[in-house]
Amino acid sequence: MDDALAPIRQKIDAIDREFVRLLNERLELAGEIGKVKRSSGGSIYASEREDAVLRKVCSWNDGPIKDEALRAIYREIMSAAIALEKATKIAYLGPEATNTHAAAIKKFGASVDYESIATIADLFTAVEKGEADYAVIPIENSTEGSVREALDNFVESDLKIVAQIYLEISHALISNDSPEKITKVYSKDQALAQCRNWLQRHLPHAQLVDAPSTSRAVEIAKNEPGAAAVAGELAAQFHEVPVQVHNIQDKSDNTTRFFVLGKKPAGSAGDGRDMTSFLISLGDQAASHSGALLKMLMPLAERGINLSKIESRPSKKRPWDYYFFVDVSGHYTDLNMKAALKELSTFCPMVKWLGSYPVVS
Fold this sequence. Notes:
By secondary structure, the chain is of the alpha/beta class. The protein has four domains: 1-86, Up-down Bundle (Chorismate Mutase Domain, subunit A); 87-169 and 254-265, D-Maltodextrin-Binding Protein, domain 2 (3-Layer(aba) Sandwich); 172-250, Periplasmic binding protein-like II (D-Maltodextrin-Binding Protein, domain 2, 3-Layer(aba) Sandwich); 267-358, ACT domain (Alpha-Beta Plaits). It is 41% helix and 25% strand. It is built from 13 helices and 15 strands. The strands form three sheets. Strands 1, 2, 3, 4, 5 and 11 form a six-stranded mixed sheet that branches. Strands 8-7-9-6-10 form a five-stranded mixed sheet. A hairpin with a 7-residue loop joins strand 13 (307-314) and strand 14 (322-329). Helix 1 (2-40) crosses helix 3 and helix 2 (47-59) packs antiparallel against helix 3. The chain is globular and about 80 Å long. The mean pLDDT is 91. Residues 1-89 form the Chorismate mutase domain. It comes from Actomonas aquatica. It is found in: Cytoplasm. Catalyzes the Claisen rearrangement of chorismate to prephenate and the decarboxylation/dehydration of prephenate to phenylpyruvate.
């Protein structure tokens, strides 16, 4: 068998040698781009360019490698390129080994620096002060809805959403004890909610205890007899605690959406592959004028701008005053978008652009 494999392995070695040479050549070119960006004050990370590269390489793919695997490889190549262009720090909602940490790694790869930050408000501050280049925050879950603290922090911040990440959330029961010995389960409130039915069926007598994060829950359970945690397998590996049961989330398509925040806005991905987020206030007319919300939506609808999400949050300035968070298709610089915003500004006290970013990530 070795005689038969030897010539094949020699061909693989030759391909690998050429692949490494070409990879380094690519990174050298990326370094040249970094010099141009730095001299002109441009952003090192460009989500629209990343999206274009990933789409392009997948369009060239004739197999047998799957597009998902090809994207993962190129994300790491681009991660190495970013690190060569500039030392880059990505802040994320910590502690280590949380789902937000996993989302940050999925987006930026292994070559950049990461920093765990305890609160969403502090993540905004870290980027605003230049202590981090970008921040990754959870914004909504397909099962449990929006992360309200994240939405509220956009009201006062000038940071821009430059990219989004979708991460399938798979929860596990993690413990040093077998399930029949478990009397207490720790986790973040949202994670417990996403596994509520499973826990009621399989651990009906266990006490459910809220923890600051899923990773911290594993850390607590590790040292407490009869305790378990609900968390992702990354947290189990990080804290070296065995997984007792895999995939305990109630819905198989449980997904969380994350935003990447930066100081400078992202350019257009083109071909209608952008999404834009706004914060809009109707002021007093929301309560006093019939059809005020419909009036707010009409400038978008009349120009064929698709609304994909709308959510209200109390302004906290006076009773029954609300902000509306709106996601629409298209980029802020599109002509029809500018026209819609101009019209909205004539009767809305506040129309705040939160960012435009590629749809797919």
